[in-house]
Write a structure and sequence with these properties.
ABC3_permease_C; transmembrane; transmembrane helix; Macrolide_Exporter_MacB; single chain; four-stranded antiparallel sheet; MacB_PCD
Length: about 425
């Protein structure tokens, strides 16, 4: 009997007792469905976290702040606060200087360091008369997820802003697309004279809501330089060029111990230093723990299903004992008998896994649509459940392996049957 004939025979024998086979496949379906869904959730959330990391910098990038500001709270929460002259908080008391930039550059295993202008205009004003507090940042060499428009340029002459999504409605725009191309005013007060001036900027994009944007709008280097110039107008040179954050690039290929040593070195010098991955590690651990528990439940379901496969094939061997004896009497080897029943087990695992993954994909698309319109409303760019073709193939192969291992006991029994005794079986 050729191999293709064995497969065809195994496939037809599988459905001799449809009820028993279908119940076994359903048991595998439940395990495959749960594993696929939890794997999709894990992939979706971790993919989103990776996107946030790319927006903030590479894994070798350190965000360095004065130690006194390391526990500071963001100015903005879910919505921008309306501006009033008395509401401007003085956060300029503890800044980093160009000397700090130079000192950090000279530290061991630091490739480069540059200031991150977290420039703080007094307010932003759009198409309405209301003014709102605003925080901005000027780091333009990272990948930023945008809901509409484009990223700001690194040119020193362009006054551009990629607006934080919280401001779209507040500034009088109907949508992110409507905001792109509009002009906003930024109010900046001179720290020396106390006089307030305004500078106009063009909205070239609107950011997606993310875990790392924290209400910040991204401005072009040209606009950042102008804001700093206006803010420091009239100040002595010794008081100019103060920075809230310095971004330092560590040398590539450092070990975890070396990275820890760099952070310790900075802490000893009076800085607070951490990578974006440090901020995300607790979230990743939580996501992996939750999906890990759900995967464990799915594994238990597959374990129970494997006993179902053993029972199904044992019953099949018992029902077909005389048939097996006849095939062996006609010259069919024990190896081919073993292979026939093993392929039946593989087919049960294949169909259960395939249907489970198919069901998970269908439910996943429904849940994604539901999430976008309910509890993930506003988190643009976040797909809760993402399915990877590679992961789906791996899941099916693992389930088929479990099914094969479960089927070895009844398959071995069938292969070891004595043809004479089998033919006498009633």
């Amino acid at each position: 009997m050729k191999f293709i004939d064995i497969i065809q025979s195994a496939s037809s024998n599988l459905w001799r007792n449809k009820g028993r086979t279908i119940l076994t496949i359903i048991a595998i379906f439940i395990g495959a469905f749960t594993i696929s869904l939890t794997s999709g959730v894990n992939s979706g959330i971790n993919s989103y976290l990776d996107q946030q990391l790319r927006e903030a910098g590479s894994k070798d990038t350190l965000m360095i702040t004065p130690e006194s500001l390391s526990n500071g709270k963001a100015l903005l929460q879910s919505k921008p606060k309306e501006y009033s002259p008395d509401s401007v908080t003085d956060i300029r008391e503890s800044y980093l200087t160009d000397q700090d930039v130079s000192d950090i550059k000279n530290m061991d295993n630091i490739e480069k360091a540059e200031p991150f202008y977290r420039s703080s205009p007094d307010y932003i004003q759009g198409d309405t008369n209301k003014k709102y507090l605003v925080t901005t940042a000027s780091k333009t060499d990272v990948e930023i997820s945008l809901e509409a428009g484009r990223a700001v340029t690194g040119n020193t002459t362009d006054y551009e802003v990629a607006l934080a999504p919280e401001y779209v409605e507040s500034l009088g725009y109907s949508s992110a697309e409507d905001a792109v191309g509009k002009t906003v005013k930024l109010g900046v007060t001179s720290q020396a004279s106390g006089e307030q001036e305004t500078v106009e900027a063009k909205i070239v994009g609107v950011r997606n809501v993310s875990l790392t944007q924290q209400g910040r709008s991204i401005i072009s280097k040209g606009l950042a330089s102008k804001i700093v110039e206006m803010s420091e107008s009239g100040m002595p040179e010794s008081m100019k060029h103060h920075h809230a954050t310095i971004f330092a690039e560590m040398k590539k290929g450092l070990s975890a111990e070396q990275m820890t040593a760099v952070k310790k070195q900075l802490e000893d010098a009076g800085y607070a230093a951490q990578t974006v991955e440090d901020e995300m590690v607790m979230i990743r651990q939580l996501v992996n723990a939750v999906t890990g528990v759900l995967t464990l439940f799915a594994a238990i379901a597959l374990l129970a299903a494997s006993f179902g496969i053993i029972n199904t094939l044992y019953m099949s061997v018992q029902d077909r004992t005389r048939e097996i004896g006849l095939m062996k009497a006609m010259g069919m080897s024990g190896g081919k008998v073993f292979l026939t029943f093993s392929i039946e087990a593989l087919l049960i695992g294949f169909w259960g896994g395939l249907l489970g993954i198919g069901g998970a994909v269908a439910v996943g698309h429904f849940l994604n649509d539901l999430a976008v319109s309910t509890f993930l409303d506003g988190l643009t760019g976040f797909t809760l459940i993402q399915f990877s073709f590679f992961n789906m193939i791996v899941i099916i192969l693992i389930i088929m392996l479990i099914a094969f291992l479960a089927g070895t006991l009844p398959a071995n029994r069938a292969a070891r049957l004595d043809p004479i005794n089998a033919l006498r079986y009633e």
